[in-house]
Amino acid sequence: MLFRFVNNIINTRGTPIPIVMLQPNSDIYNPSDKLYDRVLCSYLHSLNPLPKYEYHPNSKKVAVMIEPRYDDTTIAVLYNFMHFMAPKDVPEPKDVPEPKDVPKPKDDPDSDVSRGWNFMFISHASHESAVKERFPHMNFVAIDEKYIEMRNGAPNISIESYNNIMMSTEFWENTIPDRYDVVCIFQRDCIMYRPFPRVFETYSYAGASFGDLLTENEFMKCTPFYSVGINGGFSLRNRKHMSFCISTVSMENVRKYREAQFTILRDVYEAKYKISTKRLVDINWALFSEDVYFSNACEILGFFVPDHYHCAQLAVEMKNPSILSGKTSVYHGWNKSYQSFNDAVNYLSQTELFAKFVATEKASIPKVVQESSKLTPVYVLPTNLSD
């Protein structure tokens, strides 16, 4: 269903107000990917002088991007995350006055938001000098050439290679120094609207959920039974727990776990999700993505993961609860246009960092006023309606 008609709304006198609002519920008709790319690049070009973010020698937190491409979009995303996670000068909230003669450390343990992160950029070796010149305090690691493939003359990496890196003990025990307890994984298709609550550092694995899947095959393959599927594209992870998952839970363990749960909870899931689970669909378990693996492995081991609602307080992907539109910290997957153009404008306009770059688009979104409601006019702002 690509379109929805809203036929009437009841005003304060109980009289139906006729409203017909036609809005595409598909990124084909109302994409936002180019808007996000433009906003990020505009943000990058507005940085003058370029900020210099500091290295925190005592930090136990590291934010990691694995990305062979090093262009304006990649650089903008790095600056965006550094702005909130590793600010050079940490301002205190305006509504919490503090004595001026008591300086706050860069990573205040009493702060409600997460700061004091160090950064690691894992990319193609050819970018090392340029990265170190721009980000002198960021740790650069070259991707092993066996994972690199050239696309249109530029280095890139396949999804399979990315999964192999993320599901290796080499990555979690050696590439990530053991001094770090918490690891933030973020990809090029992420944007940070605002800082995220510090409490999410305590989870074994937290991020945007992928619990709203369309097909029975995808649902049965990906979504854990008791928790939710955590998308790895933006995620916070306990480094030791990730390593323990790999050394303890095999893909065969995951397969047997899923098969057993389908048998036990078949009726529950048929009733709750209105899908048929009378047979286990043919799944190539070897092609599991790393985030699907860790979502299931964490559930098997009983590790601490957030529920769907709390995931949305940290990050969103396909599902964007309206109650959290002005509260969620990170949007993952902007290049896939999960949001409509108008939704993207609205969310960006609520941010301190990006609002000015969508001011023109915000002003051009029409307000529909129903004149038949004289006492209480009804304003309808176009939005991405769900089915």
Explain what the structure shows:
The structure is a single chain. The chain is an alpha/beta fold and 387 residues long. The chain has one domain (28-88, 107-380): Alpha-Beta Complex (Spore Coat Polysaccharide Biosynthesis Protein SpsA, Chain A), CATH 3.90.550.10. It is built from 13 helices and 15 strands. The strands form five sheets. It has a six-stranded mixed β-sheet, with helices on both faces. Strands 9-13-12 form a three-stranded mixed β-sheet. Helix 2 (72-85) links the parallel strand 3 and strand 4 (118-123). The chain is globular, with a radius of gyration of 23 Å. It starts with 7 loop residues before the first strand and ends in a 7-residue tail after the last strand.
